[in-house]
Amino acid sequence: MLNYSFMQNALFVSVFISILCPCIGIFLVLRRYSMIGDTLSHASLAGITIGLLCDQSPVLGAFIFTSICGALIEFLRTYLKKYTDLILTIVLSLSVGIAITIISSGKLHANADSFLFGSVLTVTEFDMITVLVLSMISVLTLIFLYNQMLYIAYDEEAAKIAGVKVKLINYVFSILVASAISVSIRIVGVLVLSSMIALPVATALQLGKGFKLTLAFSIVFSVVDILSGLFISYDLNVAPGGFTALVSVVVLVVVILVRRIASQVKIKTS
């Protein structure tokens, strides 16, 4: 299986996805912003179609357009603080409208369907370089802003009082989310991308550990989910994105059941 160059490329990208997505996802989940990830994952489709229309890298197009949408969400929060769901609807409508208009125009020089479901066959060397650069920049930024982002995740108002530049960091974080989404679309696909951001974190939260251990377990679960989905989907000849989402749900359910059984056993033995 790994003798094929396209599987080697897919494995390379999958490793970076499995590390980057939970690093971003844990902050989204703690801030109860997981639906922003879903909105931006759908927004990436518009970036993909714009990139294909301009004969440029769809991954780069997705990153640029999703970054703009992330910044737009943050900008609109200033004026619609009580209506976050409305903001997401506005951005989702804008991006999906652009994507459908471009796809239906018949002017695309490539098929965008593989980006909806994920495909191991479409990962190019340029995509690998783009993924490597975006992932390294994102992880280094997360490390540099770790304390401030953790403070904001737990209490944004207290962070403002403490002098944290909340608005600036929120804009930076929206770009980081865009980066995580754009590096994942080749393998995972647009339709289930948000599950890769949220589900490993949701699984790790079931363990009831501190933040750092939860982040570490999120990465472990993400690696298991994505690599299992990649290899098994290859054997079954199905789209890796959808099957990876199924694996993620199964792992989450198994962890919940094991934790519940362990709790029952502990109660009976005490």
Verbal overview:
It is a multi-pass membrane protein. Its main location: membrane. The chain crosses the membrane at residues 6-29, 59-79, 86-106, 126-147, 168-185, 215-232, 238-258. It is found in: Cell membrane; Membrane. Keywords: Membrane, Transmembrane, Transmembrane helix, Transport. This protein is an all-alpha fold and 270 residues long. It has a single domain (5-196), classed as ABC transporter involved in vitamin B12 uptake, BtuC. Helix content is 80%, strand content 0%. It is built from 12 helices and no strands. The chain has helices spanning 5-30, 34-53, 58-77, 84-104, 113-117, 125-144, 146-154, 156-161, 166-184, 193-205, 211-236, 240-269. α1 packs antiparallel against α11 (211-236) and α2 packs antiparallel against α10. The protein is globular. The chain starts with a helix and ends with a helix. The relative contact order is 0.17. The model has no long low-confidence stretch (mean pLDDT 82).
Question: Layout of helices and strands, plus pairs?
Answer:
Layout: H1 5-30, H2 34-53, H3 58-77, H4 84-104, H5 113-117, H6 125-144, H7 146-154, H8 156-161, H9 166-184, H10 193-205, H11 211-236, H12 240-269
Would you kindly provide a brief summary of this structure?
This protein is mainly alpha-helical. The chain is 80% helix and 0% strand.
Top keywords for this entry?
12 helices; 270 residues; single chain; mainly alpha; globular; ABC transporter involved in vitamin B12 uptake, BtuC; 0% strand
